[in-house]
């Protein structure tokens, strides 16, 4: 009822029943079938339709009615055939047909609809709701949306008199509609949040720990590189300053030193060159360097380069640190790190080169890269978004899942622009975040973030509801490194790849310097010379060490270990050793050589010392071991099969889930091919896809597997491992999607079945009608469509109640199924509306016989509980043998025939005319 108005016209309810009972007569509104199906699916997912009135919605309609001065305010939800009112003020009806509703137009255009005078609007002038009760003259409706962006209804206000509606009033209506939208979506969002928290809780802590460890490792590597650069520059300056020391240092150098004349003939060959290449000094002197250590494939290029430098004084490798292949006396292939210089002595041109065998380091580096690539692959596969920044607020990590959340790549933006650029909102989704509210910025400032709610709502994309957890990252010495946040989606590594490239560039920088500590000790055991790197090693000034006893630079226990080698050197014996020392509280590993300083008379005047700091190598070995253990722990505890195959399809890695899912020990799989581990039918299903992967393609497949009588559906992705365009192997990741697939099958069944009667529903009926018409055309046979409803079914509900009405509907469906053929399709559209699709009927007369049979089948009384009730039906039949008649036309004829049967007194059938 309208406050202060006459009661609504009773014809409104009668017209509503009439329109509801006539399928296929909707007003032509700009909504495609597929779009409307998606929209209605989103509405049903909210689980609000046909629920009782709730104060949280009624409060909003009362406010809208009062603030805007409107007698009617409604929360209207637009279903397939109706608009249903979740909340209503000033109107008794709970729903009206969609075909005559104003709200359907607002939903279709997805923005506010204002009709200031319906009688002057061609779309609504003849609308029954305008020409009759409730006499709508003014209407304003703002669409409300589901959390996935579908328009599901409106908040609307109505008056029976024309009126204007300014921008201020429109904004008020939008604000109230936003509150209605929040209430509609609240249940779905809370349920999604609970599921996401349970799925990602354990993973979040492990991911944070891995990122912290990786950041610390990068920081330590950077400091080591800087220190080694300074060491090498100091060594080269010292070697140029004193020729005698250079001679001694070259002989004791840990790196091979080779000198040649302008023709490439060896004139210098130190002991380390003997050890590295296998040729003695006597064997090497006078020989061509290219024939000794340069592989066949590179010799001509080497000779041409030397000739070019001799003629023109320019060369690409002079004064440049580079890695190059070399060969040894026993024809072994190694990789050396080389620095070559050209100099003149006595007017003649010579070349000198330091060479260091880095083959083992490169192998270790490649192994570490392979492990790192596997870890990065796992990180990119996870559905947890990870974002990190440096200490100065520069975004440094933005994995696949994070990019999908935002729909944007990372950009070098000031932190104050993050929220606006990436569309970050507070947990309610209504308020844009301030800079200090962004989880990554809060973590950078030292706050430990745990499941902080936020919304990502990029323009033109579905909004995402996120729980963010993060913390600040610090280095081993407490220095600030930045912050990291993991984002869990409760509604998939560009930055990681950039970090990897930076890390590789830093690693290559190691080759630019020779890390050597150089010193001289007299026969009294006092320092007489120390280079800059050595001074830094001891952590003291030059005047604090030169002229002072060696023992003062060490603690007593450490000097005892060094002293034994000093005594041997002072006895004229050359010694080489490796050890670990604590100097100024720092632990260092080094490789040292003591070379006696023997004068022309044979007296020992002291010794020269050269030490290479190998601390980084030792720590790298420890880190690699720890990294492998962490990787094994992570992959063994992920609910997925993870493995790596080489190009011969042999396992190089497999996680513990192979034992749980297949009963195969992963350790026993390593080194074996797939055919060695699994039966032929298992391999045959996968071999073709694995071959495609080894051709460089990422492959996804879904297969059923059986183990111990249990059938699983596995979704697998095969990722090629590539380096320099060459496939080195394949990463295999498989997850169990059995539960998801079974759930999809159940949903499909529910979507096509009427839950009350077990008959096909409207969706299934429409698909089957199109298929039957197609078969009729192909087979050149007739078919018919029946529309049926129960006579005076409203009286049945009024007298027996809805439970009794449901029992009548079920018994009505059972009698229809017993009466027609099994090949005929019986469906329930809605309420008491049923349809039957008859195929292979040859004439209208045959249709009439079937109609009479159905009317007769309804003759016996229906038993409802302890009561008996007479139930009859009216039937409209449309028969065709024409290929020109489509589903809409056939339905229209059946609908018309049904109304003829009702007009003739009900409890009978009518066969529509025409072919």
From TrEMBL:
SMART domains: GAF, GGDEF, PAS. Pfam families: GAF (PF01590), GGDEF (PF00990), PAS (PF00989), PAS_4 (PF08448). Residues 781-914 form the GGDEF domain. InterPro entries: Biofilm_reg_signaling, GAF, GAF-like_dom_sf, GGDEF_dom, Nucleotide_cyclase, PAS, PAS-like_dom_sf, PAS_4. Residues 242-313, 371-447, 503-573, 627-697 form the PAS domain. PROSITE patterns: GGDEF (PS50887), PAS (PS50112). PANTHER family: BIOFILM ARCHITECTURE MAINTENANCE PROTEIN MBAA (PTHR44757:SF2), DIGUANYLATE CYCLASE DGCP (PTHR44757). This is PAS domain-containing protein. It comes from Massilia aquatica. The lineage of its organism: Bacteria, Pseudomonadati, Pseudomonadota, Betaproteobacteria, Burkholderiales.
């Amino acid at each position: 009822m309208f406050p202060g108005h006459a009661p609504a016209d009773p014809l409104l309810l009668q017209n509503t029943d009439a329109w509801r009972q006539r399928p296929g007569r909707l007003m032509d509104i700009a909504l495609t079938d597929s779009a409307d199906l998606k929209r209605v699916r989103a509405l049903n997912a909210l689980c609000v339709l046909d629920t009782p009135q709730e104060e949280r919605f009624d409060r909003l309609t009362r406010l809208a009615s009062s603030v805007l001065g409107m007698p009617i305010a409604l929360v209207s939800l637009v279903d397939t055939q109706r608009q249903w009112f979740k909340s209503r003020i000033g109107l008794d009806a709970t729903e009206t047909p969609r075909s005559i509703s104003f709200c359907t137009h607002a939903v279709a255009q997805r923005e506010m609809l204002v009709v200031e005078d319906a009688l002057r609007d061609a779309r609504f002038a003849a609308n029954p709701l305008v020409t009759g009760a409730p006499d709508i003259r003014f209407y304003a409706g703002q669409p409300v949306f589901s959390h996935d962006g579908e328009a599901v209804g409106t908040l609307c206000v109505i008056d029976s008199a024309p009126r204007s509606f300014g921008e201020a009033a429109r904004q008020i209506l939008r604000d109230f509609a936003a509150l209605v939208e929040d209430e509609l979506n609240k249940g779905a969002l809370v349920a999604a949040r609970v599921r996401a928290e349970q799925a990602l809780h354990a993973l979040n802590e492990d991911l944070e720990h891995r990122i912290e460890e990786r950041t610390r490792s990068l920081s330590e590597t950077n400091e080591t590189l800087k220190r080694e650069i300074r060491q090498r520059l100091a060594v080269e300056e010292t070697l140029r300053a004193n020729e005698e020391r250079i001679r001694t240092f070259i002989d004791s150098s840990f790196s091979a030193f080779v000198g040649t004349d302008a023709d490439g003939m060896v004139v210098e060959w130190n002991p380390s060159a003997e050890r590295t290449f296998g040729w003695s000094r006597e064997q090497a002197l006078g020989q061509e360097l290219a024939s000794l250590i340069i592989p066949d494939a590179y010799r001509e290029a080497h000779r041409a380069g030397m000739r070019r430098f001799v003629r023109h004084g320019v060369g690409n490798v002079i004064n440049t640190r580079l890695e190059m292949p070399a060969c040894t006396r026993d024809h072994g292939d190694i990789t050396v790190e080389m620095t070559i210089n050209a100099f003149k002595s006595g007017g003649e041109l010579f070349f000198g080169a330091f060479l260091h065998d880095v083959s083992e380091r490169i192998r270790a580096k490649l192994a570490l890269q392979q492990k790192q690539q596997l870890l990065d692959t796992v990180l990119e596969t996870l559905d947890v978004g990870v974002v990190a920044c440096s200490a100065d607020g520069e975004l440094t990590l933005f994995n696949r899942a994070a990019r999908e959340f935002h729909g944007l790549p990372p950009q070098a933006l000031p932190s104050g622009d993050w929220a606006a650029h990436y569309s970050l909102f507070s947990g309610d989704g209504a308020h844009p975040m301030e800079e200090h509210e962004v989880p990554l910025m809060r973590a950078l400032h030292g706050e430990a973030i745990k499941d902080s709610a936020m919304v990502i709502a990029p323009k033109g994309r579905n909004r995402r509801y996120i729980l963010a957890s993060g913390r600040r990252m610090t280095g081993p010495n407490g220095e600030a490194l930045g912050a990291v946040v993991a984002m869990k989606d409760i509604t998939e590594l560009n930055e990681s790849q950039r970090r990897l490239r930076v890390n590789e560039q830093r690693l290559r920088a190691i080759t630019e310097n020779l890390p050597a500590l150089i010193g001289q000790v007299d026969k009294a055991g006092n320092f007489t010379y120390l280079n800059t790197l050595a001074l830094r090693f001891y952590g003291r000034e030059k005047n604090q060490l030169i002229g002072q006893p060696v023992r003062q630079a060490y603690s007593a226990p450490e000097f005892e270990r060094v002293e034994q080698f000093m005594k041997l050197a002072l006895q004229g014996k050359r010694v080489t050793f490796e050890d670990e020392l604590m100097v100024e509280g720092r632990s260092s590993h080094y490789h040292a050589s003591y070379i006696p300083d023997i004068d022309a008379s044979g007296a020992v005047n002291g010794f020269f010392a050269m030490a290479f700091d190998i601390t980084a190598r030792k720590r790298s070995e420890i880190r690699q071991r720890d990294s492998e253990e962490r990787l094994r722990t992570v992959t063994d505890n992920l609910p997925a099969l993870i493995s790596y195959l080489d190009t011969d399809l042999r396992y190089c890695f497999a996680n513990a889930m192979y034992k749980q899912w297949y009963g195969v020990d992963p350790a026993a799989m390593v080194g074996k091919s797939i055919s060695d581990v699994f039966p032929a039918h298992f391999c045959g299903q996968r071999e073709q896809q694995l071959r495609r992967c080894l051709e460089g393609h990422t492959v996804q497949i879904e297969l059923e597997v059986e183990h111990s009588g249990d059938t699983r559906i596995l979704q697998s992705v095969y990722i090629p491992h590539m380096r320099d365009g060459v496939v080195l192997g394949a990463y295999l990741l498989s997850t169990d999607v059995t539960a998801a697939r079974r759930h999809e099958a159940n949903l499909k069944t529910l979507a096509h079945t009427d839950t009350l009667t077990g008959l096909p529903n409207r969706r299934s009926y429409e698909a089957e009608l199109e298929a039957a018409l197609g078969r009729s055309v192909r087979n050149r046979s007739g078919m018919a469509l029946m529309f049926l409803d129960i006579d005076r079914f409203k009286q049945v509900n009024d007298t027996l109640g809805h439970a009794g009405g449901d029992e009548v509907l079920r018994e009505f469906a059972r009698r229809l199924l017993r009466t027609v053929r099994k090949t005929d399709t019986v469906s329930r559209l809605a309420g008491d509306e049923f349809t039957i699709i008859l195929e292979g009927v040859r004439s209208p007369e045959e249709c009439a016989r079937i109609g009479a049979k159905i009317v007769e089948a309804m003759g016996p009384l229906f038993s409802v509980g302890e009561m008996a009730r007479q139930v009859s039906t009216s039937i409209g039949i449309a028969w065709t043998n024409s290929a020109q008649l489509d589903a809409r036309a056939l339905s229209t004829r059946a609908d018309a025939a049904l109304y003829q049967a009702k007009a003739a007194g009900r409890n009978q059938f009518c066969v529509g005319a025409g072919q």
